[in-house]
Amino acid sequence: MLKTTRCAGASWLPGVLLVCQIGTPAHAAPAAVAPETVATQLRDAALAGHDIAYGWLSELTTRFGARPAGSPNEQAAAEWAVLRLKALGFENVHLESFPITAWVRGTESAQLIAPTRQPLVAAALGESPPTPAGGIEADVVLFPTLAELQAVAPGSLAGRIACVTLRMVRTEDGAGYGPAVAARIEGPAAAARAGASAFLLRSAGTGTARFAHTGTTAYVEGRVPVPAFALSNPDADQLERIAALGQSPRVQLSSTASTVSGAHSQNVVADIRGSAKSPLEQFVLLGAHLDSWDQGTGAVDDGAGTAIIVAAAKLIRDLPHKPQRTVRVVLFGSEEIAQPVAPGSVFGGHAYADTHRGELPRHALAAESDLGADRIYAFALPHAVLKGEFADTVLRVLGPLGILAESHAPRDAGADVAPSVEAGVPAFALNQDATRYFDLHHTADDTLDKVDRVQLDQNVAAWAALVWLAADGTQNFREPGAP
Q1: Are β-strands 118-119 and 108-114 bridged in parallel, bridged antiparallel, or unpaired?
Q2: Residues of 34-56 as b/e, b for ≥16 C-beta within 10 angstroms?
Q3: DSSP 331-381
Q4: How far apart are CA 409 and CA 414, in angstroms?
Q5: Which of 53, 91, 90 is nearest to 311 (CA)?
Q6: Which class would CATH give 105-259?
Q7: What is the mean pLDDT of the chain?
Q8: pTM of full prediction above 0.70
Q9: Residue 371 clears pLDDT 90, i.e. is over it
Q10: ∠ CA 130-197-199 to the nearest 5 degrees?
């Protein structure tokens, strides 16, 4: 008969009991514990606060603040992460460096000149070139959508500034970001084609606070063609109201932004080695990005993601026995900026996929955390396991957290792991509530005080439980016939 009692060597978490055989000698190995039981214990430990997520995030954002790709802060944060991961007991901890072109904001300003004078809250968009030394002053032509700007005749906006005023729609899953960010990425090229001297954008964000949301743009033939800025949403509203009165808003813009060739970024790689030995070693890849934009301290984007996956992996590392598969944590560099050699590329993700090309066939599963720290409400599994015992087990463990099962595979694996997924690695997703994420994203308001510790721990609980179920098993997550 089996009873629940404390086994020798099994007191890895306060108050957690593992199952062992009553009457066996004290030195005997405990009976095998079902993966679902361990996953439930991991979940409950994280909910009880037995994880390091908030401490990691607080130290990261306090020590290093903003971490722009290629900056000394990003590099120092990566070196700190290596030391911390080693101290936490991770193995194979190392940096993998790669070259990038970095971007430096410099100083910037924006002013409404007519019909009245008023300072505007604006931020240069990533990779934007500087304005001429005296700045740019011109009338602003407003376009409700990117498509309407793209439709104007070439050269028709000569001597003026093009502005797209599309409002981002607030949604739980963040679906409104795609249409809004398309205007940010493609708008400077459309403005240049129309002959405009600069580009303005209503921020790709949902907040009503007077913060401008920066973000990447697209290189065209090795450069962003015109100076480009995001306006805070209240200031974009002001320009629209002026235009509605039949007047032309006139704006002055100034920026000393610059690019730095020959810079570098880096991925931080750390493992919890599985019990299966090479060449049978398989990997469950957990990703988040260590770089951030320069205005806040990158707490929600994406310091929180790094904290969640490190804390979840640490809980697994501290178990009395190893999972069968290796759990690999990668803190990606240079997620936020585009590169002139590959417009729109996410260099950390590409660098990892290129460096580990030979291992990718042995990557069983991959996912990333990059949507802040608010609660997870759903999980999505690869097609191969959408239905069946694995999916049922995940739902039993995650259901008490208020997490439901999606009826489809992940629609977006995430930018960092996307190159690995494109190479054939199956992906899962833990979908977070993004209702307020885009109020903060890419702004000066992205700071530690915006992180809810209870919701942060719920994330860790879900990640630790699902990753354990995936790592301590032999389930094939690839489609039948896939390599």
Answers
A1: antiparallel
A2: ebbebbbbbbbbbbeebbbbbeb
A3: EES--S--BTTBTT--HHHHHHHHHTTTTGGGEEEEEE--S-SSPEEEEE-
A4: 13
A5: 53
A6: alpha beta
A7: 92
A8: yes
A9: yes
A10: 75
Question: How far apart, in whole angstroms, are the C-alpha atoms of residue 400 and residue 396?
Answer: 7
Helices (H) and strands (E) in the chain, counts: 12, 18
Main-chain phi, psi angles of 327, to 5 degrees:
-95, 120
Cα–Cα distances (Å) from 267 to 97, 143, 198, 210, 348, in that order, read 6, 40, 35, 34, 6
Confidence of residue 257 (pLDDT cuts 50, 70, 90): very high
Instruction: Give the amino acid at 441.
Output: H
Question: Domain-by-domain residue ranges, the chain?
Answer: 1-33, 35-98+264-471, 105-259
Residue 268 in tokens: 């931080």
DSSP E strands in 127-196: the ranges are 136-143, 161-164
Nearest-angstrom CA–CA distance, 217 and 254: 18
- Alpha carbon 363 to its chain centroid, in Å, reads 20
Cβ distance 102 to 70 under 8 Å?
yes
Cβ–Cβ under 8 Å, residues 213 and 441: yes
Write out the two tokens for 202. Answer: 């209503």
Q: What confidence tens digit (pLDDT) does each residue in 446-468 have?
A: 999 999 999 999 999 999 999 99
Residues serving a catalytic function are 335
Whole-number pLDDT of residue 483: 55
240-253 pLDDT per residue, tens = 999 999 999 999 99
The verdict on domain 35-98+264-471 having CATH code 3.40.630.10 is yes
Given a contact cutoff of 8 angstroms between Cβ atoms, the answer to whether 229 and 183 are in contact is: no
> Residue 363 corresponds to which tokens in the numbers above?
């990557």
Split at pLDDT 50, 70, 90, the class of 33 is confident
The values of phi and psi at residue 434, to 5°, are -100, 15
d(CA 425, CA 422): 7
Residue at 164: amino acid letter: V
User: SS3 helix, strand, coil % of the chain, rounded to 5?
Assistant: 30, 25, 45
CA distance 342 to 215: 17
Which ranges in 371-452 belong to alpha helices (H)? 389-398, 418-422, 437-440
State pLDDT tens for residues 140-182. 999 999 999 999 999 999 999 999 999 999 999 999 999 999 9
Reply yes or no: is the peptide bond before residue 35 cis, omega within 30 of 0. Answer: no
